[in-house]
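In full, the data:

***
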Amino acid sequence: QVQPGEFGGGLVPPGGSPRLPCAAPGRIFTWLAMGWYRQAPGKQRELVAAITTDGITNYSDSVKARFTISRDNAQNTVYLQMNSLKPEDTAVYYCNSRPSTTAYWGQGTQVTVSS
């Protein structure tokens, strides 16, 4: 298995602050820029946050100042800290390399923002 495993989703109230971990299967991901992507119902998958191997980050305008991507190479894990969640953040969240690699798409984790 080469796909990373995304966790931490679920039903979250508006304004919530979950953290999504992505456990990468093996050290190959420590050599790659990584990204968190999401796909909302009826919409195309989009990149929301990315981090280089050196820890340089960038974000889509829709999540800037609310989400934080980080990585722990020793643990082969990439995180997405989500703050001030809005209903429009409802989506399936995936991690993958940046740019994405077809073979690395996993099942994702559903985040539903609702009261």
Remarks:
- The radius of gyration is 13 Å.
- Residues 32 and 53 are 6 Å apart (CA to CA).
- The longest strand covers residues 91-97.
- The mean pLDDT is 93.
